[in-house]
């Protein structure tokens, strides 16, 4: 490592009597076979096997000529080699410097081939663009048109269509111009056709492009696109053929469904942030329709016979029965945004689509005593706000989340239908709690808990949600709260606290062992680039003797590769320190763009070796993040600091204490030990057996 790379190469070439050492380079023999350069030579580990090979510039020159060959076999082989070598940044730089991309554009623009050769060409193009040497905006219109044509043609190889969709997906977020071009050329109808194929990869890439278009669109465009997709029944299709297909749902598809759900729910944001305008005729009519639907049968005497004053007082009385705080001017109640007009929309939807339930709610409460009535309007406004918070309406999409609700895709007008179920739940819980007006916030708190607990069970349909949320009544919530409180409240007697402290070291050792075992099993990590979620995976695991960390790239679908198949190693003895969150180099690199909070919470890095290299991780979940950071801290001889350690320790301590205190059930433990009695004045009470025997 002390000599310049050129003299190392010269030494190797001289040993094998090879002239022109500058035409050769070293590359790793295993794994991704990266070329060794002055900038990455420090990453070579002891024990790595290197291979002498043609230098990247020679290889780039050879392939540059090969892809221009008239012999189709030579051309196809060169393109195939180019597709695999382009993953290497040194080679990619050399090839691009020779204007190699121009040649690739030429093959695509002028060629009529739609088979294997084209697939290799597009794969090479994707890999070269991945290094960010060239801007996507430099692509020619002819090239883009050709890529679009592969997506729009029927008789094209599936691998070509997948790659074409991927290329377009990468283009869309880079500039408004490219977005408009792709949106115009690739119709939503065409994407829906691709979604309906049986090839899962093609389906995934079509969904990826659809999501990229939705995210890059303006609010108005997004609304129009979503309206069109609704007309085409995309929701029913996803529910039937993707969520309930025989194949399990992959992480990436789950993420796209989460984004689609998020984008759909965010269409409510505009109404949620708009206050009611008391001068708007349309909004006033909606408000009046609520009163008329509830009380029209009661006030059959034509209202026109009443004086204006009488009519006004009658309306005010009816609005008070509807549960508006400001009954003379109910529009005031809807001035608060959020939930703004969304609350009015929900109330009107409930009164029109379930008129019987609506009338029952209002009339039942107007016949109760004043202080025991459940105010419909006030509850609706608060409930709409709660649902917006639970469903994250108006919040930007996370770049990594996969938490979508299967029942969202099982129902048109999901938000309104969910509101209809929950507003009836408010009335039911109000009665169960025998609540008065002062308990309003308390009731809504219980309702929020009922909704979140039921949603966490991931019900597959709204019917199932309704059944479960109604089964989770107030007494059940009290029981759950009681159990949780008992779990949290350990007996706080001094002897028990002392016992806890004595048990801690033993249980912490148990947690350490579990963390190291988890590291030995290993975990699959994703690589996330600055531009998009990537489907590249790598695996990392600890050797059984806890001396070496093994890692390497793996293919999709490999769950626990054997240690021998992971080429890279870091000896634990070389590890210097663990970095998390903002301290990690791979999160600092991206700080120029929009810093992603999710990635920050899951990022950690190991610094190792004298030169302080870093191995960067992004954990798949917070749980994995906690286990890995704890395990690495144990290897570094430091304290385990994750929140998971504390919860695990609490669970183990609580179980251990319960077992130890079983015999003391119903016995009160004193805070101080009972006093030891004084010794007796004499010990003559002792019975002497020897005298008795004589």
Account of the protein in words:
With 694 residues, the protein is α+β, with helices and mostly antiparallel strands. Among the domains are: 1-49, no CATH class; 273-295 and 311-486, no CATH class; 503-647, Pleckstrin-homology domain (PH domain)/Phosphotyrosine-binding domain (PTB) (PH-domain like), CATH 2.30.29.30. Helix content is 54%, strand content 8%. It has 30 helices and 9 strands. The protein has helices at 5-15, 56-66, 72-85, 89-97, 100-110, 116-129, 141-152, 158-171, 176-185, 188-195, 200-216, 219-231, 234-243, 251-265, 269-272, 281-295, 308-321, 340-353, 355-366, 376-390, 414-432, 440-455, 462-471, 474-488, 494-521, 585-588, 597-602, 622-635, 643-660, 689-693; strands at 24-28, 50-54, 523-528, 533-542, 548-554, 568-571, 575-580, 603-608, 613-618. A 4-stranded antiparallel sheet has the order 3-4-5-6. The protein has a 3-stranded antiparallel sheet with strand order 7-8-9. A two-stranded antiparallel sheet has the order 1-2. The protein is flat. Residues 591-595 have low confidence and may be disordered.
């Amino acid at each position: 490592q002390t000599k310049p790379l050129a003299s190392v190469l010269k030494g190797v070439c001289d040993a094998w009597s090879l002239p022109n050492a500058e035409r050769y380079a070293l590359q790793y023999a295993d794994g991704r076979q990266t070329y060794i350069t002055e900038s990455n030579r420090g990453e070579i580990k002891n024990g790595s096997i290197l291979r002498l090979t043609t230098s990247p510039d020679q290889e780039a020159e050879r392939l540059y000529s090969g892809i221009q060959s008239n012999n189709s076999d030579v051309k196809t082989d060169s393109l195939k080699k180019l597709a695999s070598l382009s993953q290497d940044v040194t080679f990619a730089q050399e090839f691009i410097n020779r204007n190699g991309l121009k040649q690739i554009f030429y093959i695509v623009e002028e060629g009529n081939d739609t088979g294997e050769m084209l697939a290799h060409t597009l794969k090479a193009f994707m890999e070269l663009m991945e290094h960010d040497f060239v801007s996507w905006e430099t692509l020619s219109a002819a090239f883009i048109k050709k890529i679009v044509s592969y997506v729009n043609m029927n008789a094209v190889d599936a691998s070509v269509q997948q790659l074409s969709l991927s290329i377009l997906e990468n283009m869309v977020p880079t500039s408004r111009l490219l977005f408009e071009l792709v949106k115009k050329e690739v119709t939503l109808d065409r994407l829906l056709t691709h979604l309906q194929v049986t090839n899962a990869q093609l389906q995934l890439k079509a969904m990826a492009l659809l999501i990229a278009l939705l995210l890059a669109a303006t609010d108005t465009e997004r609304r129009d696109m979503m309206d069109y997709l609704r007309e085409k029944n995309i929701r029913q299709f996803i529910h039937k053929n993707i969520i309930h297909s025989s194949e399990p749902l992959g992480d990436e598809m789950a993420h796209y469904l989460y984004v689609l759900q998020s984008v759909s729910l965010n269409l409510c944001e505009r109404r949620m942030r708009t206050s009611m305008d008391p001068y708007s005729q349309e909004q006033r009519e909606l408000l009046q329709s609520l009163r008329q639907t509830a009380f029209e049968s009661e006030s059959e005497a034509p209202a026109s016979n009443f004086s204006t004053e009488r009519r006004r007082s009658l309306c005010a009385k009816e609005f008070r029965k509807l549960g508006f705080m400001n009954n003379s001017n109910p529009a005031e109640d809807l001035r608060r945004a959020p939930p703004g007009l969304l609350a009015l929309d929900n109330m009107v939807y409930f009164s029109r689509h379930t008129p019987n339930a609506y009338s029952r709610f209002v009339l039942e409460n107007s016949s109760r005593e004043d202080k025991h009535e459940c105010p419909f309007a006030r509850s609706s406004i608060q409930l709409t706000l709660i649902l917006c918070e639970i469903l994250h309406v108006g919040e930007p999409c996370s770049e990594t989340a996969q938490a979508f609700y299967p029942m969202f895709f099982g129902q048109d007008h999901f938000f309104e239908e969910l509101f209809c179920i929950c507003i009836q739940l408010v009335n039911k819980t109000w009665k169960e709690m025998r609540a008065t007006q002062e308990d309003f916030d308390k009731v809504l708190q219980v309702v929020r808990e009922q909704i979140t607990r039921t949603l966490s069970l991931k019900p597959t349909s709204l019917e199932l949600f309704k059944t479960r949320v109604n089964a989770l009544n107030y007494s059940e919530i009290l029981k759950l709260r009681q159990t949780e409180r008992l779990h949290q409240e350990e007996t706080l007697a001094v002897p028990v606290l002392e016992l806890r402290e004595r048990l801690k070291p033993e249980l912490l050792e148990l947690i350490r062992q579990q963390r190291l075992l988890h590291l030995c099993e290993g975990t699959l990590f994703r690589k996330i680039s600055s531009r998009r979620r990537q489907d590249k995976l790598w695996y990392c695991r600890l050797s059984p003797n806890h001396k070496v960390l093994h890692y390497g790239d793996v293919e999709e679908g490999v769950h626990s590769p054997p240690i021998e198949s992971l080429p890279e190693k870091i000896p634990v003895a070389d590890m210097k320190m663990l970095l998390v969150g903002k301290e990690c180099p791979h999160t600092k690199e991206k700080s120029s763009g929009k810093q992603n909070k999710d990635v920050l919470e899951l990022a950690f890095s190991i610094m190792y070796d004298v030169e302080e290299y870093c191995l960067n991780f992004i954990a798949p979940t917070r749980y994995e993040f906690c286990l890995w950071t704890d395990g690495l801290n144990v290897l570094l001889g430091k304290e385990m600091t994750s929140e998971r350690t504390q919860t695990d320790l609490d669970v183990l301590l609580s179980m251990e204490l319960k077992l130890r205190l079983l015999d003391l059930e119903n016995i009160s433990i004193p805070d101080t030990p009972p006093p030891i009695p004084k010794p007796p004045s004499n010990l003559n009470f002792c019975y002497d057996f020897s005298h008795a025997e004589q």
